[in-house]
């Protein structure tokens, strides 16, 4: 009946370099969801929770059996309180009995509808989202989907802020054909009354991080510095073009299995003041490696501090204004590198 736990547990190292982890993952349902949650925590700069979920995912990838009961993780390292709570919720929902839960595991998690209807789930909004949409979220976002979402975001934003500029950043701006999410930068020339934008409609799941930018504050010197813009880690509901669901919407409840005509897509929305737009664009276009090295170059070669808000010249003790990425490269004395050449 029980597939080892406690005897294995004693031997499991907390260090992944002392564990042999193959691609044979019995706990993909958990690990995919944990990785999405970790990204959300990273976004909120909660490094502790981020690491907790990444470590737990890594440990679960190592286990030679699917976790179906709390007993399965007893005595294992790398399972923090957060992770334990999530596993407990999910194993207790499925845990009607070992047999049933194992069957469910083989079939995959319960359906979105079943989970939604389940009133016993006490997970946070974010944890639920990670599980509810995980299948969509771990499948890549295509360029076509990015284009479709761009239209939606642009249309929606323009109904609230007619003059706002919406720019796709991240991997898609660098010309990638696939991505794990879609990143947008939103700025409004003129008066800055855009704080409310993110608080309005349309999102399946959304975790808004308020702006913490302080005027006159020196750019951050951390190489991996995130920024202080108001931003939002969201999951958007994209209705797939080509699927006609009008009959489902109009007909009253039938016994027909519900057809899912949409896909959950991870979208990052970042709101930036117009004056900082070029810096934000450069930072959010990435790649991560390219951005890190830009900052490293600025400080080591130019005695300047670069972040997503601006560029500070330490010798002249001034902030250098820029209206375009070209100007930022010029300030740094660098040849301009096009977005599609920043895939470092
Ligand atoms: P992908 O989504 O196609 O997998 O790749 P990507 O678009 O290059 O990566 P990303 O994780 O979506 O991040 C886009 C860029 O934004 C990346 O170069 C790092 C940069 N970036 C910031 N601030 C932040 C932040 O707070 N969180 C995240 N995740 N990325 C940030 O400048
Ligand atoms: Mn991206
Ligand atoms: Mn992103």
Explain this structure:
This protein has 344 residues and is of the alpha+beta class. The chain folds into three domains: 6-138, DNA polymerase, domain 1, CATH 1.10.150.110; 141-274, Beta Polymerase, domain 2; 289-341, DNA polymerase, thumb domain (Beta Polymerase, domain 3, 2-Layer Sandwich), CATH 3.30.210.10. It is 40% helix and 15% strand. It has 14 helices and ten strands. It has helices at 6-9, 28-43, 47-62, 81-94, 98-107, 112-117, 125-132, 134-138, 143-160, 170-173, 246-250, 277-285, 288-302, 325-331; strands at residues 141-142, 165-168, 178-179, 182-187, 203-209, 230-239, 262-272, 304-306, 311-313, 318-320. Helix 2 (28-43) runs antiparallel to helix 3 (47-62) and helix 2 crosses helix 7 (125-132). The longest helix is centred in the middle third of the chain and has 18 residues, at 143-160. It binds 8-OXO-2'-deoxyguanosine-5'-triphosphate and manganese (II) ion (2 copies). The site of 8-OXO-2'-deoxyguanosine-5'-triphosphate (8DG) has 17 residues, from helix 10, helix 12 and helix 13. One manganese (II) ion (MN) binds at residues 170-171, 179, 181, 183.
């Amino acid at each position: 009946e029980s597939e080892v736990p406690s005897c294995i547990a004693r031997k499991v190292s907390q260090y992944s370099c002392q564990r042999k982890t193959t691609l044979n993952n019995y706990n993909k349902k958990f690990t995919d969801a944990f990785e999405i949650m970790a990204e959300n925590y990273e976004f909120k700069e909660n490094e502790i929770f981020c690491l907790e979920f990444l470590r737990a995912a890594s440990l679960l990838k190592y286990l030679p059996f699917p976790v179906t009961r709390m007993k399965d993780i007893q005595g294992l390292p790398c399972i923090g309180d957060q992770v334990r709570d999530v596993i407990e919720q999910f194993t207790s929902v499925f845990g009607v009995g070992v047999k049933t839960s194992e069957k469910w595991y083989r079939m995959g998690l319960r359906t979105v509808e079943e989970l939604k209807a389940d009133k016993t789930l006490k997970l946070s909004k974010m944890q639920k989202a990670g599980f509810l949409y995980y299948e969509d979220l771990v499948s890549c976002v295509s360029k076509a989907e990015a284009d479709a979402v761009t239209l939606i975001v642009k249309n929606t934003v323009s109904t609230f802020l007619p003059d706002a500029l919406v720019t796709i950043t991240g991997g898609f701006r660098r010309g990638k054909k696939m991505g794990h999410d879609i990143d947008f930068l939103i700025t409004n020339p003129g008066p800055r009354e855009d704080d409310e934008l993110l608080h309005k409609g349309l999102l399946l799941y959304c975790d808004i991080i308020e702006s913490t930018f302080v005027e006159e504050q020196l750019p951050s010197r951390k190489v991996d510095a995130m920024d202080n813009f108001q931003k939002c880690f969201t999951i958007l509901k994209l209705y797939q073009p080509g699927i006609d669901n009008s009959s489902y919407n109009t007909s009253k409840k039938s016994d027909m299995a519900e057809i899912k005509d949409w896909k959950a897509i991870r979208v990052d929305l970042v709101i930036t003041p117009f004056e900082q737009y070029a810096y934000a664009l450069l930072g959010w276009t990435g790649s991560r490696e390219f951005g890190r090295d830009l900052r490293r170059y600025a400080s080591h070669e130019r005695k300047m501090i670069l972040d997503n808000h601006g560029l500070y010249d330490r010798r002249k003790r001034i902030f250098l204004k820029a209206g375009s990425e070209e100007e930022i490269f010029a300030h740094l004395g660098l040849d301009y590198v096009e977005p599609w050449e920043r895939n470092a």
